[in-house]
Amino acid sequence: MRALERLGFEKIRQSGSHVIMRRGSKGCVVPMHGEIKVGTLAGVLRQADVSADEFIAAL
Predict the structure, then answer these.
(1) Which runs of consecutive H residues, i.e. helices, occur in 1-59?
(2) Which residues share a beta bridge with 19?
(3) How many CA within 13 A on the CB side of residue 59?
(4) pLDDT tens digits for range 3-59
(5) Is the pTM of this model over 0.90?
(6) Which residues contact 50 (CB under 8 A, 6 or more apart)?
(7) Strand, helix or coil for residue 34
(8) Distances from the Cα of 37 to the Cαs of 24, 34, 40, in angstroms?
(9) What is the rounded end-to-end Cα distance, in angstroms, of the chain?
């Protein structure tokens, strides 16, 4: 979630253990678990229209 915030996303709302984030017209649902599986992270990045390189740079 912090890496997405550094990329300009903001937390819109939270429903249980999932946070909805948005940047402009792009949004994504981020699960708030201890660790996120690789496939889940790839799906979140696809929803957010963020490349893996951008995400790694924001970490």
Answers:
(1) 2-6, 38-48, 52-58
(2) 14, 30
(3) 6
(4) 999 999 999 999 999 999 999 999 999 999 889 999 999 999 999 999 999 999 999
(5) no
(6) 4, 7
(7) coil
(8) 26, 10, 5
(9) 10
Structure tokens at 31: 């699960």
The 26-31 sheet, strands edge to edge: 10-15, 18-23, 26-31
pLDDT at 34: 85
Task: For residue 18, report the phi and psi dihedrals to the nearest 5 degrees.
Answer: -125, 135
**18-27: Cβ within 8 A, 24+ apart:** 21/48, 23/48
Rounded Cα distance, 55 and 23, in Å: 14
